[in-house]
Amino acid sequence: MNTRQHETADPNLNVTAPIEEQPAVSSSSDSDLTPKTPHPSEDSAEVERKFPGRLVLKPLHEQVIVITGASSGIGLVTARMAAAAGAKVVAAARNEEALKELVAELEGNGQHAAYVVADVGSEEEVQRIADTAIQKFGTFDTWVNNAGVSIFGQAMEVSTEDMRRMFDTVYWSVVYGSKTAVRHFKQRGVPGALINIGSIFGDRGVVIQSTYSSAKFAVHGWTENLRMELEKEKAPVSVTLIHPGRIDTPYNEHAQSYLDKQPVHRGMIYPPEAVAEAILYTAEHPKRDMFVGSQARLGALFGNLVPRLTDKAFEWIMFRGQQSHERPSHPRQSSALYEAGYGMHERGTNEGFVRGGSLYVKASKHPAVSAAAVVGVGTLIWALAKRKK
After folding, report:
1. 20 lies in a domain?
2. CATH number of the domain within which 311 lies
3. Which of 14, 94, 130, 366 could form a disulfide with 117 if both were Cys (CB 3.0 to 4.6 A apart)?
4. Which domain holds residue 87?
């Protein structure tokens, strides 16, 4: 029998931090530099005439955004960046101490925030996140399914109990959050954004993270199927799948490890701000997919075009490329699989090269400009080659 340990509590004891009503703080965001999608504040008939059939999402500074897994890593960075752009933030995680600190920080900056202590592996607790957002702010406009945890170990060595628990957090939480968000957006009749965080390993399998990779494959499949059904019925929901590459967060420190050496990212790594940038862009602009880093895009591409070659490359590289050379692995009981991990850390203790951002994300935000640049460079190269002749 599975003995999963969900963190349950009396909802009356999971109090959100008090919120003082004050004007939302507006600040510049990445979207200020991009062509604006029309927003619901415009005359709806005019919007429909200019952009027939297009979902129109609110600008970020008018939004209430729910973020799961907000106590560290990608979720923490996204919460801070969203609040800085003027959004009201509802942060959810299991670590209450970290959530209290986050909300106090944001409110100290004159921003609006609330928190919910919740284990997203429980459907009832996911619903309580939505209830809190509605109670505090009257609605929510974007829901980000970000919570996650991994297991490092060879497939045949990982216990079934650990696998089931991880699926609760990585896959079922996305199902619960998606259903909760879609019901809300349909009931209110105003378009909202559902943003699910996938993975490079949801597009392509990898050694020693078989459970995590399988769960992310399930997240990708769920998101694609849900998107098509909602699009067919013309539901007011933008559904986006984010495909991060390897990101510098406490992901490896929180993971359950069956390895002798500590799990780490080695090689090229992207900052969590690059993922947050993609999330917040798609909160305002309906987009099917956003890949964070060419690493993520190429991994999916090569996995489809030359799968056998990719198998061999991963077998050769990824056993060594996901473990520290020197550090022993943390004990399993210190992982965040069953209990909340440490919070308020954006970065991890990885051993790779951390890039300053993702050019692929920036290019995805400006596809027309990027295409024109590629054409321009191609034309210049052709002209120079012709002159040499």
Report:
1. no
2. 3.40.50.720
3. 14
4. 30-357
Find, among 42, 37, 43, 83, the residue nearest to 57 by Cα.
Answer: 37
- In degrees, rounded to 5, the angle at the alpha carbon of residue 118 between the alpha carbons of residues 112 and 64 is 30
Question: Pick the catalytic residue: 115, 171, 176, 212?
Answer: 212
194 three-class SS = strand
Mark whether 176 is an active-site residue.
Answer: no
What does pLDDT average to in each consecutive run of 10 residues of the chain (389 residues)?
A: 40 38 34 39 44 83 98 98 98 98 98 98 98 98 98 98 98 98 97 97 96 98 98 97 96 95 91 97 97 88 90 92 92 94 93 82 74 46 53
The residues, ordered by sequence, that sit 6+ positions from 78 with a Cβ below 8 Å of its Cβ are 67, 70, 144, 146, 275, 276, 279, 280
Nearest CA to 30 among 290, 249, 246?
290
Q: Which of 84, 97, 148, 143 is nearest to 120 (CA)?
A: 148
CA atoms within 13 A on the CB side of 231: 13
Whether 312 maps to a domain, the answer reads yes
